[in-house]
Design goal:
Strand order of the largest sheet: 3-2-1-4
Helix content: 40-55%
Structural class: alpha+beta
Order of helices and strands: EEEHEHH
Shape: globular
Length: about 90
């Protein structure tokens, strides 16, 4: 599963490469609720690959991101990394 994280028009977009999973967008102008994201990734049966591969690469690619956008994206990366660590523990 590849999730492309990008920033466009002040929205953080999570584009999943699986058509069964809906893409998700977050805007800091609205309340950010991560429940749908957690529900969607909890149904996955494989690890998550991210594009950009990590938070530092995201910061380098999207230099115009605001501090709040970066904080949210950093948190998203932490969620995905925690999922992958849990996946590895269960599937050793």
């Amino acid at each position: 599963m590849i999730i492309k994280i990008n920033l466009q028009n002040n929205q953080i977009n999570l584009d999943f490469d699986d058509e069964k999973i809906s893409n998700i967008s977050y805007s800091l102008e609205q309340t950010v609720n991560l429940t749908n994201l957690i529900t969607q990734i909890s149904t996955l049966s494989n690890k998550i690959d991210l594009d950009p591969i990590d938070f530092n690469n995201f910061k380098n690619e999207f230099k115009a991101a605001s501090i709040l956008e970066l904080k949210l994206v950093e948190y998203l990366y932490k969620i995905f990394n925690a999922y992958n660590e849990s996946y590895d523990e269960v599937n050793i």
